[in-house]
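Would you kindly consider the sequence and fold I have copied below?
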Amino acid sequence: MDEPGYSESRRQRFLDPVRVRRPAAVAGFVLACVSGLGLALLEGSIQSALLGAAWLAIVPAAALLGWGNAFFLEHGVGARRAWLELIAGALVALFGCALLGLDADGLGRRIVAVAIGTVSYLALFRALAAGIGLAVGRGAGYMGKQLQGLDDTDW
């Protein structure tokens, strides 16, 4: 890496699971803020388009964060945190959706909707990322052990 003339390509940086975690987490936070603000400040088709785009963007952002977390989970680091994020995130997101379904009017309702929408989106983002990280991290370790077992038996 320290050789003269060596430059890391964008693809190598993008696929590095350690480097991808922070930008993915920031993207999730920004998407959560956009989703919460769009829920309260916009109306009509613009609101629907913005929320639809934010909800579609949650999947690749969570997949990138999950990919970064999977690297550490594969090496036995952060499993309890990932399980806690998965369970707590799912519960907070469900509770937030139930609160958003309550019918109330006025400025106070809009302020509360921004907070609840942002927290619900962020909780779902973290839960999805933790689930992907657990599936990929633990699955890769399991698959590696199975392939090693096949190799040991002279398959």
Notes: The chain has five helices and no strands. Residues 10-152 form one domain. The chain has a mean pLDDT of 83.
